[in-house]
Amino acid sequence: MKLFEGIRANWLFNAIALGCLIALVGFLLLTLLSLGLFVDWNIFLSALVSQEIFFAIRLSLFTATLAAGLAMVFAIPASYALSKREFRGKNIVDTLLDIPIVISPVAFGSALLIFFNTPLGTFIENHFLQFVFEVPGIVLAQFGVATALAIRLMKSTFDSIGQRYEIVARTLGYSSWKAFLKVTLPIAKNGVIAAGILAWARAVGEYGATVTLAGTTQMKTETLPIAIYLNIASAEIDRAVAVTFILIGLSGASLIVLRRMTGKGYSL
Amino acid sequence: MKVQGVQVKVGEFELEDIDLTVDEGLYFILLGPTGVGKTVLLETLAGIHRITRGRIWLDSHDVSHMPPEQRGISYVPQDYALFPNMNVRENIACGLKIRKMAKSQIDDQVGKYAGRFGIAHLLDRPPQRLSGGEKQRVALARALIIRPRVLLMDEPLAALDRANRGDFWIMLKEVQREFGVTVIHVTHDFEEAFILGDRIGVFIDGRIVQSGTKEEIYRRPNSLEVARFLGIRNIFRGTIQCVEPHEGTGRVSINGNGLAFTFDLWDSLRAAEEVDFLIRPEEVMVIREGKPVKESLQGNIFEGEIRRIIEKGTHHVLLLREIREGVVFEANIPNYVFRNLELAENQRIKAALRRESFWIIRRKENSPSTRNVTGR
């Protein structure tokens, strides 16, 4: 078997394309390897069972799961509407929804922080739920970025499902609700699950917006990314590396699940 | 089903003043080029799009604003849209399930329909593993099992091999008779339209420009756009030279030259009127040397040179250039006649146009309502 296959091409063209690919993979592997060489495994294990890191893991899993769940509750109907319905200003809405992904998370977090200083924001803080420098703030920040990502992914899933299925379902006797729940949503299942996983992974890794809105209080708003920051800031490099490994593990696991869900799997 | 002055706008398609009457139990073909909004019209009849004007009646009930699930109209789209998350059995059963029919009854019905459409062995397969023809049968079973009053089909044979279409034509016609369902079938294929349709509506540019029996559409297109769409050759601009009402004939000349032909008169035509006229290629006769010429061909004989011969399998097409004026006629000659006459390119022959085969189309500026031109 040849090392590389595909249509016949100029050797220089192939060399440049594949060279860039190899360079990028090398870059990532080197980074991970240096982490692995740096870590002191005894400290790693003791960090894992330390109260602070354990708290960070629990908080991260709890907030990210809640944020991703809420994100899906809003993003499924919203992305469906964006994909299948025509309305005035649709392009503007579509662009607006991308803002949390494209602007810097810190900027998004600042905007949230400033919102809670407006009369409406203060009213919400005083009468309903406190967000600023509190756990709900983490969930809100994660929710903001995760929703934008989930909508983007699910809209392309719904776009790829023709309107015909729903039209036929309607003529067969399904109401618009039933046609969505029994036909479109099951067809979109893999895309929806993939969006959920990526939204969750994005929420677990969220740092910029969380820091700005919820702050970096140890053992209070300390999610895994914030734990890395706090440990590096206090020169606890080994602990920071340990937390980094945990985060890499979580993201890696979600990527594996994602590939399985989308039927790609792995082969060597 | 009756459609009156319906107007609908969906994306770039705007359908206006759609009038259509399809009698119960009839096979109606909506014939038109692709990309003119035929699918939008079908979806509108099914209730998918809101109409902005007009009325849709079904069995004397006004269904104009009724949601699709209450209309009793089934729809088979071009790609069949079998639900990929269900197997064949579930696809067929879903219309009954939503009606809360008992499971034993559903199984019974699905078995019956699967048997009728020859798909009983496919019931547990996912639709992704069916051939085009199998998908079509499943889609039909799914559409008919709910006993719709009207069945809408959008280019149902477009995805099939040409070789299989003949079988499906027969099946569609049988199914329609057996279930007694009113069918509205959209196609761009003339052959399909003429084989299947009890009546045909020609749909061009968002309007139904002519509706009638096959014979009417085929022989008497009411406008040049219909004639051109039907691919009719031998369309000429002409002037009525004279009319002889007591003899029942008229004479029409091809514009710009002295070539003129006698035709059976259509009574309201006037001398000097500008018209378009057409004669179908199969009505152009090659005259055998020395053979007596029929009365109806007298006055319509011309001499021509065969410029090209095209073999079409079922017949031969001659491109015949009239010698004096250079007008080119197309003639379809049955194979056996072609062989008997031993025709060849560059050969000079005599040909004639049958006077009862002329179809005169009045110009729009002469007759504002060409749609009323129905008889001769």
What does this protein look like?
Chain A is mainly alpha-helical and 268 residues long. Helix content of chain A is 78%, strand content 0%. Chain A is built from 13 helices and no strands. Chain B has two domains: 2-228, P-loop containing nucleotide triphosphate hydrolases (Rossmann fold), CATH 3.40.50.300; 233-361, OB fold (Dihydrolipoamide Acetyltransferase, E2P) (Beta Barrel). Chain B is built from nine helices and 20 strands. In chain B, strand 12 (249-254) and strand 13 form a beta hairpin. The two termini of chain B are 29 Å apart.
Would you summarize the structure shown here?
Chain A is mostly helical.
Helix-strand blueprint:
The complex is a heterodimer of chains A (268) and B (376).
Chain A: H1 11-38, H2 41-48, H3 51-84, H4 90-102, H5 105-115, H6 119-127, H7 135-160, H8 164-172, H9 176-187, H10 189-205, H11 208-214, H12 224-233, H13 237-261
Helix pairs in contact in A: 2-13, 3-7, 3-10, 4-7, 5-11, 7-10, 7-11, 8-9, 10-13, 12-13
Chain B: E1 2-10, E2 13-21, E3 27-31, H1 38-46, E4 53-58, E5 61-62, E6 73-76, H2 88-97, H3 103-116, H4 132-144, E7 150-154, H5 162-179, E8 182-187, H6 190-196, E9 199-204, E10 207-213, H7 214-219, H8 224-229, E11 235-244, E12 249-254, E13 260-264, E14 274-278, E15 284-287, E16 301-311, E17 315-322, E18 328-334, H9 335-341, E19 348-353, E20 359-362
Parallel strand pairs in B: 3-8, 3-9, 6-7, 7-8
Antiparallel strand pairs in B: 1-2, 1-4, 4-5, 9-10, 11-12, 11-14, 12-13, 14-20, 15-19, 16-17, 16-19, 17-18
**Radius of gyration of chain B in whole Å, from Cα?**
25 Å
CATH topology of the largest domain in chain B: the name is: Rossmann fold
Which CATH top level class of the largest domain in chain B fits?
Alpha Beta
Indicate the low-confidence ranges of chain B by residue numbers: 366-376
Pair with the biggest interface: A-B, 19 and 28 residues
Q: H/E series of chain A, N to C?
A: HHHHHHHHHHHHH
- Strand count, sense and closure of the main sheet of chain A? none
Q: Order of strands across the biggest sheet of chain B?
A: 6-7-8-3-9-10
CATH architecture of the largest domain in chain A, by name, is: Orthogonal Bundle
* Total count of domains of chain A: 2
3D shape of chain A: globular
Strand content of chain B: 25-35%
Rg calculated over all Cα atoms of chain A: 22 Å
Query: Would you identify the regions of chain A where 5 or more consecutive residues have pLDDT less than 50?
Result: none
Number of domains of chain B: 2
- Write down the overall mean pLDDT of chain B: 88
Proportion of helical residues of chain B: 10-25%
